Amino acid sequence: TESSAGMLALGEICDRRTDGRTITRGLRTDGIATLLGPVFGGFPTSAFAQNVGVVSLTRVRSRYVVAAAGGALLILGAFPVLGAVVSLVPMPVLGGAGIVLFGSIAVSGIRTLSEAGLDDSSNIILVAVALGAGIIPLAAPTFYAGFPAWAQTVLGSGISAGALVAVVLNLFFHHLGTHSRTAVALKSS
Asked: Can you tell me where the transmembrane regions are (predicted)?
């Protein structure tokens, strides 16, 4: 869910249409990277939303810049002295950068929501309930304590809880609900 959302946000930032094929290719690449990370002694990887914020702020969209940054990270990893120099960046500087990055991610999300047709009441309900479901694990971490373990795993993450609610409500309002609305309209005419 998080990787797909990042791909959609990057597509909007870069003015490129993000279709199902593009997301499939991105998820496949993300999966391959996750498999290869531990082979080289690293951790499984994931696409991070912070990168969406960096692209949004800098407007640098070149894959060559990404490759150069990857090369710089490899060099930093190969020479611990260089990594130690980078670790000298003061925490307030990192905190300030984090606020700007995460704020820009929120703005990307708001921009996406503004294109969702929020003049329709069903879309307003969908967004409101999905946001609420996503906030519950943060606001009340023990809210799902009485649920079965599998439900706690799914609903305990704000991202997965919000995404699950959004998908279910989208199906209900825009796919299942459409047929019943049409049937009611036909019966009344």
From this structure: 64-87, 93-113, 125-144, 150-173
